[in-house]
Amino acid sequence: MVEIGEIQLPDKPVFLAPMEDVTDPSFRYICKMYGADVVYSEFISADGLIRDAAKSMAKLDIFPYERPVGIQLYGHEIEPMVEAAVRTETVNPDIIDINFGCPVKKIANRGAGSGMMKNVPKMVEMTRRIVEAVNVPVTVKTRLGWDEDSKNIMEIAERLQDVGIEALTIHGRTRAQLYKGEADWTLIGEVKNNPRITIPIIGNGDIDSAVKAAEMFDRYGVDGIMIGHATYGRPWIFKEIKHYLATGEQLPSPTVRERVELAKLHLRKSLEFKGEKVGVLEMRRHFSSYFKGLPDFKDTRIKLVTQNDPQELFLTLNYINDRWGAFDTSDVRQTGVYGI
C-alpha cells in the first residue's frame, strides 16, 4: 500500500498527469473509468485564481466519482500561491499539488513551474508556507533540474520532504530538454533509494505501454508512476497497465467499435460539463487520436475536428462504426500507431 497523507492507494498506483487543456472533468472521468488511481486537474494559475478569473475558477470543479483527485497550482510569488492554496482547499480536493516542473517558456522564464528550480530557497519557502496554510496533503511535481549542469533533484527532494510534502513526482528530464530526447530515470531511482527519503516517489516520463510501466517499477523501485502524453487517444492504458502488473499478460487493443462507444461517452461528458460550444471544441484533440491509424480516414478525421453540431458528430461516429467496425486493431497496437 502507498500512502499520501491519509490517502491509501494500492501497491504500484498509476496517476494521470495534470495537463493543460486535457485533464478536464470529462477526460478525468474516462481515465478513472479505466483504472487511474489518482487524477489531477489541469494546472491552475495562482494569479488567475485569486483574481477570480473565470477560466481558473472553472478548473476547481471536482466530482465525487474522481476521488482521490488533486488540484495543481503554479505561480512565481509566495503570497499569491499561499492564497490560491487556501482558496483551493475550500473545494475539498484530496491533494494540492505544486507545479515546479512545467517547462513552457512563458511560465518558466517568469520563475514559475520549472523556473523555480533556479531558486531552490524560494521553492522551499513557498512549499513550507503552503503546507502550513492548508490541511490537505501537499505534493510537488518537478524535474531533474534546470539543465544538464544543474541536476539538483536530490537536494530538492530532501528539502521539500523536510518542509512537509507528502509525495514527490519527478519527470525524468531537465527543463532545458523540454520533452525532447529520452527521459532519464536513473536519478529518479537514486532519489527513491536515498535512505533519507521516506515519502512516496512517483516517476514520470516516456511510459507508453504496460511493459514499460512494469519495467520502471521493477528497475527503479518507484512507489508509483504518472502518465501524461501516452493517455492521448488511449485512456485505456491504465487498464492495460493494471492488468499486466497483475497477470503478466497484455490485453488486446480495443476494437474500433469499442473506441466509437468510448468517444460517444467522452463527448456526452464533455457536453455535460462544458456546454455545447466548448464541449465540442475541447473534444477535437481527442477525436482523431481515438481513431489514429485507420486507413483512408482523412476525410472523416476532418469532419470530427471541424463539425460544431453534436448530433452531426454522433452521426459521424456511427459512420466510423459502420465503415471501420471490422478493422483489426491488434497489429496497430503492437506497432505503436495508436495514441502514443
Characterise this structure.
With 340 residues, the protein is of the alpha/beta class. It is built from 15 helices and eleven strands. The strands form two sheets. Strands 3, 4, 5, 6, 7, 8, 9, 10 and 11 form a nine-stranded parallel beta sheet that branches. Helix 7 (153-162) links the parallel strand 8 (138-143) and strand 9 (167-171). The longest helix is centred in the C-terminal third of the chain and has 19 residues, at 256-274. The protein is globular and about 60 Å long. The relative contact order is 0.11. Residues 333-340 have low confidence and may be disordered.
Q: Which structural class fits the helix and strand makeup?
A: alpha/beta
Q: Secondary-structure element order, as H and E?
A: EEEHEEHHEHEHHEHEHEHEHHHHHH
The major pleated sheet works out as: 9 strands, parallel
The proportion of residues forming helix, as a percent range, comes to: 40-55%
Number of strands: 11
> Kindly state the mean pLDDT as a whole number?
92
Work out the strand percent.
5-15%
Number of helices, where a helix is a run of at least 4 consecutive DSSP H or I residues: 15
Catalogue the unreliable spans. Answer: 333-340
Shape: globular
Q: Give the CA-CA distance, first to last residue.
A: 29 Å
> What would you report as the Rg, rounded to the nearest angstrom?
20 Å
